[in-house]
Amino acid sequence: MYLPPHTAMLTAILLSLSLTAHAAADIEEDDDLKAIYGDKLTVSIATGSQKSLRLAPAVTSVITAADIRAMGATDLDQVMETVAGMHAEKIGANNFAAYVLRGIINELNSQILVLQNGVPMTVLLTGNRSRLWGSYPLQHISRIEIIRGPGSALYGADAYSGVINIITKTSAEIRGTEFGISAGSFSTRDAWIQHGGKLGSVDVAAYFRAGKTAGHAEIITADAQTGLDRVFGTHASLAPGPANNGHDAVDAFLDLSYEKWRWRSNFILRDNIGTGTGTSSALDPSGKLKSQRLTSDLSWSDNHIGQDWCLGFNMSYSQYLQRLPSPLVLYPAGVTFPTGNFPDGIIGAPNTSERQLRASAYAVYTGWRDHQLRVGIGHDDLNMYDTYEFKNFLITPAGLPQPAGAVQTYTGALAFLEPHRRKVDYVYAQDEWQFAPDWNLTAGIRHDNFSDVGSTTNPRIALVWEAAYNLTAKLLYGQAFRAPSFNELYSINNPAQRGNPSIQPESIKTLEAALIWQARHDLQAKFNIFQFRMKNLIRTVPNAIKGTGSSYANTNSQEGHGMETELNWQASRQLRLSGNYSYQVNTDQVTNQDAGYAPHHHVFARADWQFAQDWLLSPQFNWVAGRKRTFGDLRPPVADYKLIDLSLRTNAGAWEVSGSIRNLMNVDAREPSFAPGSITNDIPLPKRNFYIQLLYKM
């Protein structure tokens, strides 16, 4: 693997001077700041059972609830930005953030798997956690475990570039009742309550939150309609104009556990979700969307079935609804196409209903000396059972919108998508073998059989060597896949892209090497390099008949390589410095050009300074650099940006008060808009903004 000389030099500088690493310090000292960081020494996401983070057979990160409080984060996107190798990149439509890991990105962010307590949050329409994500509450998060790299050998579909598992708090972690309110810029306000205790012999953890925000309204100077106006001589574009980034939120969680049983349920509502920069990259200030997600899972586990066995199972039910209380204006009033004029604009409102049933079971056997064997089976029944659409247009054979009079309801073959169902059966096996005192080999394989896109088998192997008492080395290889979304397979009557039932899953093969060095009791460094090759990437291509639009197809391959460095230094009893540097290059194998969008260089650094009793000041720095356009996009390169944030927290008895300033220097920071560049001047990020939070613990 080749790394440019300047990268190697920068790595050396960072390893010597930088302030790194969010991914977990193996520091065991009794100091004033220990309570700030929580338990970051173990991780379960890498093998399915608790494992020392240092010895886990994967490149992993752990973020605790205490970490989140220290950084003053108000949104999950801000937390993800602190992870080595990851960038939370705003896409534009619905103010959605793509969690870009190691430079792997598509417009829907469907190449990373997001779990909540081990249950996938993937929606069938888009194959991601939903474009109508809005935000995710942080107060009820216990920890976030992240695999940076493929995870399909254990987690199956979509564990492609990585896996994020959001783990919510237990009764023991909450211990009592907590009330909180917060307010800030963009008319943002939240209120929540959570409780942890016992109801007889049942452990109870409960959480409720309600909030809303108008969202930042940075000005979009030109949009897709601007280009159409130039072609047809119209003046329909609403640009320059503000982005539509608001939403309302309601979250409710309930966690009941009794002996070996655990039942968790949650309800997530996002209402009045703005269209961001527009669903079709044309400003839409009136469109509103709504998503409703209900998830319930029941699990049982026994770690002592006889002398050598551990057994467990999980059953989950999830329902996801997408509704549009105010239809989307795909293009504004007065837009003209060769098919005719739309005096009220092109209006559409796609609605979907889906339910997901999942069942899985596993067994762990430790009776074979120096081995821990894990086997599992599972079945998923994934059903998009209802689809319908309000719209005022139809699609011509050429793929263009044609006026159809007043807004009407369309179902079946006239809607954007017909109902579809997918069933998945899978089996996996994994062996953790300690074949020498300082050597551990983990090998695993999983086979998935899909009712609609065939089958796939994905292995992984990891060699971990404790080279010295303070040095661990890892060599990792893994394969993963991404199953096509229902939109990519079955979309019809779409003016931009049409589905293709013949496409196959994307695949990736990744090779990694990692070092973890505990240089001193108060200083830890991490370094890893990686190389991967992706095949069968799903993209849109022009149809064979010219002028009939485009369809999804398996097209090009992509290769990537890079490195990540992390450092964590407990400089004193009152000061901890942390940060990371990431470098990546991704190359499209068809054009032999940069794959675009993702930063080649990313630096994050944070200081946590307890300057007085019960006072914590945390400044942080975020540098995003080296983002290139894709082949054929002739716009100037995207400007780099450097952001400084500041948070302050204090405790007074049962009260806690915290405040944060984001983008302290009021930088004009932007994320690249996707080609062909309809949002010409890219996606603006929020300017300087403020938040304050008040919390009371009973």
TrEMBL record:
Q: Does the keyword Electron transport apply?
A: no
Q: Which residue ranges does the record assign to the TonB-dependent receptor-like beta-barrel domain? A: 250-664
GO CC aspect terms: cell outer membrane
- Matches recorded under SUPFAM superfamilies: Porins
Q: Where is the signal peptide?
A: 1-23
Q: How does it sit in the membrane?
A: Multi-pass membrane protein
What domain of life is recorded for the organism?
Bacteria
Q: Which PANTHER family match?
A: HEMOGLOBIN AND HEMOGLOBIN-HAPTOGLOBIN-BINDING PROTEIN 1-RELATED, TONB-DEPENDENT OUTER MEMBRANE RECEPTOR
Does the keyword field hold Ligase? no
Q: Pfam families in the record, alphabetically?
A: Plug (PF07715), TonB_dep_Rec_b-barrel (PF00593)
GO terms assigned for molecular function:
siderophore uptake transmembrane transporter activity
Protein's UniProt name: Iron complex outermembrane receptor protein
Q: Name one GO biological process term.
A: siderophore transmembrane transport
Where's it found, cell-wise?
Cell outer membrane
What keywords appear on the UniProt entry?
Cell outer membrane, Membrane, Receptor, Signal, TonB box, Transmembrane, Transmembrane beta strand, Transport
Record InterPro entries: Beta-barrel_TonB, Beta-barrel_TonB_sf, Plug_dom, Plug_dom_sf, TonB-dep_rcpt-like
| Residue ranges occupied by any TonB-dependent receptor plug domain in the UniProt entry | 54-163
Q: Which family does it belong to?
A: Belongs to the TonB-dependent receptor family.
